[in-house]
Design goal:
The chain is α/β, with parallel strands linked by helices and 409 residues long. The protein is built from 15 helices and 16 strands. The chain is globular, with a radius of gyration of 21 Å. The relative contact order is 0.15.
Length: 409
């Protein structure tokens, strides 16, 4: 097997995150792992490894730990403008809803994003993407949703595609046109839903710009009935479904999205047991976003114990955005998931690898160290995988591997 590998890491401890391996983290000690044509081709214990007939490059990990590349399964990374003043307003007592109703929040970013060109959006977004890559992220989901018109939503998604072409990272895109009601449709939310279903979805699909749709199902955004119309339209075009639900109230959006086979439902502070049961029934991932919980100073924690009881996979993501989670650190999100939501370090790491991949509909391609998977991996200078959730701010990366190649930014 290893004779035909292009590159082999030896003397490496693997946190495979493969649930079929009975040890915590799916750990395998003192291994060799080989890649070929961008995928993991072979894994074997060093005890039985024969190096004499190997022609490919051999890299000695010297006992370091290797994990799957990190997956940020929920981000609003492409945007223009700045909303630091809203941070001040919240500290002075204004709520998220109050700021939104004053014309701030999402709509303030919409104006700046509409005024920017594709290339300007790319340049503004590059530092945010580089920050994630520097922490070991190899896959990131990027949403639209700050354009709220056909022209501007297309522009955002084109910028996301440009980033995927320029940087060694897998980008999964979502059409989040149902993020807020644009000014020109005030008083006509159903008319805007018509635009999304009849024009935006077909146009983005025809250009190959999206893998999924997303919605904001909330009292300050769109009703379950309006979101359901988008889900139905998405199904006609074989798009995945994601949803922001149960963040500020319980509209039973998680249950609705799960019934439509949603890949993930996200936020979930107000999620109830009926919603959890539906997610378990239909295989929907719960994506936890502790950054927004932290920045908005929320107090109601997602029902993690219920999600465990029903064995619903829990992803962890940054929710990187300009207003409620200006967080370009997936490692910090892992720590927050543990300290604020009481995930274990193993659950947090699974949340940014295996379960993050499942939230993107990519569970068969990325998120585990397993033969046949894409060779997106990170070699860390750590003594135990728990360090990845415990500590942040210190770069512990020895090598970031993307599609079998050692690729940093």
């Amino acid at each position: 097997m290893f004779e035909s590998c292009e590159r082999i890491w030896i003397n490496v401890n693997l946190a495979t995150l493969d649930p079929k391996i009975e040890f915590p983290y799916g750990a395998l000690s003192d291994q060799a792992i080989g890649v070929r044509e961008g995928r993991i081709f072979a894994i074997e214990s060093m005890e039985t490894m024969n190096l004499t007939r190997i022609a490919g490059e051999i890299i000695d990990a010297h006992g370091g730990w290797m994990t799957p590349g990190l997956v940020d399964a929920h981000s609003h990374l492409v945007f223009a403008g700045n909303r630091a003043q809203e941070f001040e307003q919240r500290l002075l007592g204004a709520s998220y809803e109050e700021i939104a109703r004053r014309g701030g929040g999402i709509l303030s970013t919409v104006k700046a994003t509409r005024d920017a060109s594709v290339e300007e959006l790319v340049k503004l977004s590059e530092p945010r993407l580089k920050a994630l890559i520097a922490e070991g992220v190899t896959s990131v989901e990027i949403k639209s949703g700050y354009g709220l018109s056909l022209k501007a939503e297309l522009k955002m998604l084109r910028a996301a595609r440009c980033l995927s072409e320029r940087y060694p990272v897998r980008v999964s895109t979502s059409l989040l046109a149902a993020h807020a009601l644009p000014p020109e449709y005030q008083g006509d939310a159903d008319g805007y839903i018509d635009l999304i279903c009849n024009e935006m979805i077909p146009a983005t699909v025809s250009e190959g710009l999206v893998e999924a749709v997303d919605v904001f199902c909330e009292t300050i955004a769109f009703s379950p009935a309006q979101c359901e119309r988008i889900f139905k339209a998405a199904q006609e075009y074989d798009l995945g479904i994601r949803a922001h639900v149960e963040q500020l109230s319980n509209l039973h959006g998680a249950e609705l999205a799960a019934r439509y086979g949603a890949w993930s439902v996200d936020h979930l502070e107000w999620l109830d047991e009926a919603g959890v049961a539906a997610m378990a029934k239909y295989g929907t991932v719960a994506t936890l976003l502790p950054g927004a919980f932290y920045f908005l100073r929320e107090t109601k924690v997602p029902p993690v114990d219920l999600l465990r009881k029903y064995q619903v996979p829990m992803a962890v993501a940054t929710d990187l955005n300009p207003g409620s989670s200006p967080l370009a650190s997936l490692r910090l999100a892992m720590n927050m998931a543990c300290t604020l939501f009481r995930l274990t370090p193993e659950e947090a790491l699974a949340g940014v690898t295996r379960h993050g991949a499942q939230a993107l509909g990519l569970g068969d391609e990325i998120g585990m160290l397993k033969e046949g998977m894409h060779a997106d991996m990170v070699l860390w200078d750590i003594e135990h995988p728990a360090e990845l959730a415990c500590q942040f701010g210190v770069n512990a990366i020895k090598q970031r591997i993307f599609a079998g190649e050692v690729r940093h930014v």
